[in-house]
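Researcher: I'm preparing a figure for a lab meeting and need a structural model of a single chain. I don't have an experimental structure, so a prediction will have to do for now. The sequence is pasted below. Please return the structure as tokens so I can convert it later.
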Amino acid sequence: MTYRNATLDDLPAIVEIYNSTIASRMVTADTVPLKTEDKLSWFNAHHPDSRPIWIVQDEQNQIIGWVSFQDFYGRPAYKGTAEISMYLDEKFRGKGFGKKILAYIISKCPELGIDTLLGFIFKHNTISIRLVTEMGFEEWADLKDIALIDNQRYSLIIMGKKIL
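Model: Understood. Here is the structure written out token by token.
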């Protein structure tokens, strides 16, 4: 696998992969597919040296998925804390790529000035919770029934990991 900084040309693929997760109601609180332009300001808010968006590719240069690092809470005291998001193309889910990508993310945190990683995961998304737990994340918060999707309440778990 290779990792590279995303370019604006990658944004349609990023949005397509993201949109493929919406219908499951397992991964995102968005309820309708987004357009590429909907994610433009989000894309531009990332910085390759500290809060990148990475494209992950296989040996044939097919996009496996993408990863983003985002500031937590936007205050200077939280500079070392980042929320991570990882989305895989449907063809690559359930094949062990998530664990490899997460290991890579963790290994690169010191270079990015990150000492604390956070993952915001729906409580019913047991697959993602199991993955991050296996990689040393712990449950730091349980925001009960915080999301309303299709007239159903969902809880959000904040999983955290200190990078030493």
